[in-house]
């Protein structure tokens, strides 16, 4: 049986314990063993896990080459969403109807949300990744950029191994250590893994029932609220104060309606909402509701999150979004130039990576307001030239 107490123990260890990284990989593994034994993992089990673990340079290359998230929403969503993927999702919704009924009754997570993750993470289980998971996690934990994220995941994998739920030699998955059809990290499996098919094991790679149910439990644990929407396509008047857009502005849906925001289909939900314009005021527009924030606990990329949330609405019968006619955006080199320019002006844009993240959007909006431009947080070549 999985020991849920391990999660609480791992999260209460001193931060300094998670900061051990770099240096000799042999010394790094020795430190992992000592920490694992301190958590109650048998020394023999820790040795068996670590004996074959090695660094994988391909993992670091993959980590540093996430260019797909540099694509704007329209291009990214059209790349990921096809009629074939949509139809496959609808077919699987029927095939696993009883499983989704149970998930919705127990955890309150709509089937379309899980289907969208299943589609985007592994193409409904077809491509789950072929990186050795133990090696991937150890490599990322040893690398000193995010040891606080990955060191606990290595220790969680060691716990799973000790409990007979993880083989460090044969378990494979994504380069970042996620496992199974909906791609869950070891700590998530310890906390939220469910043996839904009742065979005595949590099999996220081979059992859709286990994988989907575990994903549903995980989303509930992250704060998903049952029977609430997450995203809705809207139309926005051209007289809108665009500076009110963005996830940092939250208003009752009735207030947005009073400003002229209307649903493209149905009615606005009676919930707090934010207006997002992923490619500026001339492109598509959406209202996001509280459940939308849960997506960011799964993935930090705004473009990925919006696309996954939108695809879930499409699986539920929503219309294709109106792409509008957005102004041209920046290529990767221009985006990096913009980020450096904004940093030089004192803005915190995070890493200079060519990705339009929250920090860059906030800085762009501030500069647009200063220059008297529509403050919609969408950077254009014209803005870059003015700066």
Automatic annotation (TrEMBL):
This is Membrane-bound lytic murein transglycosylase B. Residues 333-387 form the Peptidoglycan binding-like domain. Pfam families: PG_binding_1, SLT_2. It comes from Pseudosulfitobacter pseudonitzschiae. GO terms for biological process: peptidoglycan catabolic process. Its EC number is 4.2.2.-. InterPro entries: Lysozyme-like_dom_sf, MltB-like, MltB_2, Peptidoglycan-bd-like, PGBD-like_sf, PGBDSf, SLT_2. It comes from the Bacteria.
């Amino acid at each position: 049986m999985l020991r849920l107490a391990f999660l609480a123990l791992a999260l209460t260890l001193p931060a300094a314990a998670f900061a051990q990284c770099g240096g000799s990989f042999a010394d790094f593994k020795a430190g992992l063993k000592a920490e694992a034994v301190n958590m109650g993992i048998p020394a023999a089990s820790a040795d068996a896990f670590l004996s074959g673990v090695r660094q994988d340079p391909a993992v670091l290359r993959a980590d540093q080459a996430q260019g797909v998230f540099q694509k704007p929403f329209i291009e990214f969503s059209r790349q990921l969403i096809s009629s074939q993927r949509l139809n496959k999702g609808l077919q699987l919704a029927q095939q696993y109807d009883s499983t989704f009924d149970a998930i919705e009754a127990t955890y309150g997570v709509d089937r379309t949300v899980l289907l969208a993750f299943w589609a985007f993470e592994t193409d409904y289980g077809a491509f789950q990744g072929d990186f050795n998971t133990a090696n991937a996690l150890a490599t990322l934990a040893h690398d000193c950029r995010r040891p606080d994220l990955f060191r606990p995941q290595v220790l969680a994998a060691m716990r799973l191994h000790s409990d007979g739920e993880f083989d460090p030699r044969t378990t494979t998955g994504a380069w970042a250590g996620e496992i199974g059809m909906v791609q869950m990290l070891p700590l998530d499996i310890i906390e939220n893994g469910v043996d839904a098919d009742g065979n005595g094991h949590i099999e996220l790679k081979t059992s859709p029932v286990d994988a989907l149910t575990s994903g549903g439990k995980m989303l509930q644990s992250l704060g998903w609220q049952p029977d609430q929407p997450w995203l809705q396509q809207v139309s926005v008047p051209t007289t809108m104060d665009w500076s009110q857009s963005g996830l940092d502005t939250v208003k009752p849906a009735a207030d947005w309606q009073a400003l002229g925001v209307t649903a493209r289909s149905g009615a606005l939900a009676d919930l707090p909402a934010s207006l997002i314009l992923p490619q500026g005021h001339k492109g598509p527009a959406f209202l996001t509701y509280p459940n939308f924030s849960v997506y960011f606990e799964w993935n930090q990329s705004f473009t990925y999150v919006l696309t996954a949330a939108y695809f879930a609405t499409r699986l539920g019968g929503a219309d294709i979004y109106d792409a509008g006619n957005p102004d041209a955006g920046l290529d990767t080199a221009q985006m990096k130039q913009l980020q450096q320019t904004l940093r030089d002006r004192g803005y915190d844009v995070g890493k200079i990576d060519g990705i339009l993240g929250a920090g860059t959007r906030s800085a762009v909006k501030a500069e647009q307001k200063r220059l008297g431009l529509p403050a919609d947080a969408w950077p254009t070549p014209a803005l870059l030239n003015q700066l």
